[in-house]
Predict the 3D structure of the following.
Amino acid sequence: MTSPAVRIENLTKIFPVPLRRQRVTAVRNLTFEVRPGEVYGLLGPNGSGKSTTLKILLGLVTPNQGRAMIFGKDSRDYHSRAAVGFLPENPYFYKFLTAAETLRFYGNVCGLQGATLNKRIDELLSLVGLEDARDRRIGGFSKGMLQRIGLAQALVQDPLLIVLDEPTAGVDPAGSHQIRDLILDLKKRGKTILLTSHLLEQVQEICDRVGIMARGEMIREGALEDLVSVKNQTEFIIENLSPEVRLQIEQLVQKSGSNLLSSRQPQRSLESVFLELTATQPQGSK
Ligand SMILES: Nc1ncnc2c1ncn2[C@@H]1O[C@H](COP(=O)(O)OP(=O)(O)OP(=O)(O)O)[C@@H](O)[C@H]1O
Ligand SMILES: [Mg+2]
């Protein structure tokens, strides 16, 4: 049996509150798995322990109890992180480096050099839509641009597991749409993605499974399909329905003893209307 891409096992993290005799339990006896090749969304209100869980997985925070594993290796062993890319919640970069220099720096850290690295930098800048900003200093980047360079940095060594803490925070709708497509493309290429997000509509579009945390605990977990489908209801979407046929359907449903709860025209998402309207406008984020 192949090992899961991520295994979080009975994890507990308690932070002391300095100067007060109080403690915050950020993560409480948390267990879940991310399977290889899936997109897993870790959801939950502010302060529910999502980022702490990711930091423990990346070996940046030590748990009080339990353990985290990456492809079967304990995350306390730095070898476990060899094939992991991470976009932290508040990525910090050297302000005086340009976008290309930043990626060169991270590429070097990961052992990439020469023509391979040059090619990778070009690929990544185009992947996250920052080609036009390649020679601009990070210090002048907008929030969305910082998020994009953070994402490019996380992908520099073409990792197998990609951990993204709120990848679309501060990014405009067109940008978050691009990031969504990028995540789906990474999944197609066999990558495993673990992300947190407050944009539930997007989560619904890209995640195979989700876990919902509250106060450090997992309160619900499962395949997205199972979580959101209303089991005892059925939806039909019919094109060009004539009033006569519609009446017949309604009568048939009534006769059968079932309840017709609603019949309406399907709605587009506000996002798709926004994207269509703004598609021809120049994007300010480049
Ligand atoms: N270094 C720290 N020291 C003390 N408390 C901390 C520390 N890091 C996190 N916490 C606390 O742990 C709890 C969980 O925080 P965490 O950042 O994991 O939440 P989150 O689910 O990522 O929230 P958000 O959606 O706002 O990003 C919070 O109460 C937070 O204040
Ligand atoms: Mg967080």
About this structure: The chain has a mean pLDDT of 90. Residues 50-51, 89, 165 surround magnesium ion (ligand 2) (CB under 6 Å).
